[in-house]
């Protein structure tokens, strides 16, 4: 109770399975007394491209544009574009970040990747010697909740689903100092029976009920590749 949750949601259709997972999370967490904010990226028409437009003031070096350097400088001088500042504020206030999305090419949809690229600016999320356990977004938790097209069995044959979580959980969240909870994966909702789909939705509600008692994973290579 009293915890702040930011759900970054990347699906175009509210009636989708992802839409149902989002709805459940908002309802259950609100019921627990958490304050829940949703960044509905498609509805916001969130800009995923990392461009010069992200810097509103003058450029540090207008001769040769360097996105990382320019956003870092702009962050320090308050010159980042308004949409980025708003997302950073939501991240800053949150105790828990939930990412809700369908798996696209073993990764996240471009609009969500763009959110990572643009919001987690140097100086805000990490700094030169401040990364991983020293990252700037400490005392926050993250949870990747996603759906797949492929079945659980196929993922077991093709290789552990944990491999594809390495860039997202370790490369992004851990890098920024954010602790990582077990991912929540709903396999192949499109190919499941109505009954199985309802079961998967109930499982998400159940997990959320005891979420705050969970320990973060040990986000080291062993968790992913052992
Ligand atoms: P939906 O189709 O919206 O939902 C499935 C069914 O659930 C629908 O019939 C819907 O009506 C129903 N439903 C919704 N809410 C409820 C409810 N409350 N109760 C009961 N039923 C409900 N998959 C992979 O495994 N690996 C990949 O690398 C991959 N890459 C992709 C790349 C692209 C570009 C695309 C477009 C897809 C890719 N996929 C991949 C598939 C993708 O991950 C799945 O299509 C997606 O995860 C399915 O989720 P959804 O929310 O869109 O499902
Ligand atoms: Zn890690």
Automatic annotation (TrEMBL):
<feature type="domain" description="Flavodoxin-like fold">
    <location>
        <begin position="3"/>
        <end position="208"/>
    </location>
</feature>
<dbReference type="InterPro" id="IPR051545">
    <property type="entry name" value="NAD(P)H_dehydrogenase_qn"/>
</dbReference>
<keyword id="KW-0285">Flavoprotein</keyword>
<keyword id="KW-0560">Oxidoreductase</keyword>
<dbReference type="GO" id="GO:0005829">
    <property type="term" value="C:cytosol"/>
</dbReference>
<keyword id="KW-0274">FAD</keyword>
<dbReference type="InterPro" id="IPR029039">
    <property type="entry name" value="Flavoprotein-like_sf"/>
</dbReference>
<dbReference type="InterPro" id="IPR003680">
    <property type="entry name" value="Flavodoxin_fold"/>
</dbReference>
<comment type="similarity">
    <text>Belongs to the NAD(P)H dehydrogenase (quinone) family.</text>
</comment>
<protein>
    <recommendedName>
        <fullName>Ribosyldihydronicotinamide dehydrogenase [quinone]</fullName>
        <ecNumber>1.10.5.1</ecNumber>
    </recommendedName>
</protein>
<dbReference type="Pfam" id="PF02525">
    <property type="entry name" value="Flavodoxin_2"/>
</dbReference>
<dbReference type="GO" id="GO:0001512">
    <property type="term" value="F:dihydronicotinamide riboside quinone reductase activity"/>
</dbReference>
<comment type="function">
    <text>The enzyme apparently serves as a quinone reductase in connection with conjugation reactions of hydroquinones involved in detoxification pathways as well as in biosynthetic processes such as the vitamin K-dependent gamma-carboxylation of glutamate residues in prothrombin synthesis.</text>
</comment>
<keyword id="KW-0963">Cytoplasm</keyword>
<keyword id="KW-0479">Metal-binding</keyword>
<keyword id="KW-0862">Zinc</keyword>
<keyword id="KW-0597">Phosphoprotein</keyword>
<dbReference type="GO" id="GO:0003955">
    <property type="term" value="F:NAD(P)H dehydrogenase (quinone) activity"/>
</dbReference>
<comment type="subunit">
    <text>Homodimer.</text>
</comment>
<dbReference type="GO" id="GO:0046872">
    <property type="term" value="F:metal ion binding"/>
</dbReference>
């Amino acid at each position: 109770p009293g915890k702040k949750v930011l759900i970054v949601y990347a699906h175009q259709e509210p009636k989708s399975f992802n839409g149902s997972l989002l709805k459940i999370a908002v309802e259950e967490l609100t019921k627990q007394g958490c304050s829940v904010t949703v960044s509905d990226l498609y509805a916001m028409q969130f800009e995923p491209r990392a461009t010069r437009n992200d810097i509103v003031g003058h450029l540090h070096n207008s001769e040769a544009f360097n996105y990382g350097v320019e956003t870092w400088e702009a962050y320090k001088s308050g010159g980042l574009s308004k949409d980025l500042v708003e997302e950073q504020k939501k991240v800053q206030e949150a105790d828990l970040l939930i990412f809700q999305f369908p798996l696209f090419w073993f990764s996240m949809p471009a609009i969500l990747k763009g959110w990572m690229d643009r919001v987690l600016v140097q100086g805000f999320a990490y700094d030169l010697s401040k990364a991983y356990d020293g990252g700037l977004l400490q005392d926050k938790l993250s949870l990747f909740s996603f759906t797949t097209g492929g079945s659980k069995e196929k993922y077991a044959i093709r290789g552990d689903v944990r491999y594809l979580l390495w860039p997202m959980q370790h490369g992004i969240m851990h890098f920024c100092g954010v602790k990582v909870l077990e991912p929540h994966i709903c396999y192949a909702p499109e190919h499941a029976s109505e009954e199985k789909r309802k079961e998967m939705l109930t499982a998400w509600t159940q997990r959320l009920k005891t979420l705050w008692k969970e320990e973060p994973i040990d986000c080291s290579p062993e968790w992913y590749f052992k």
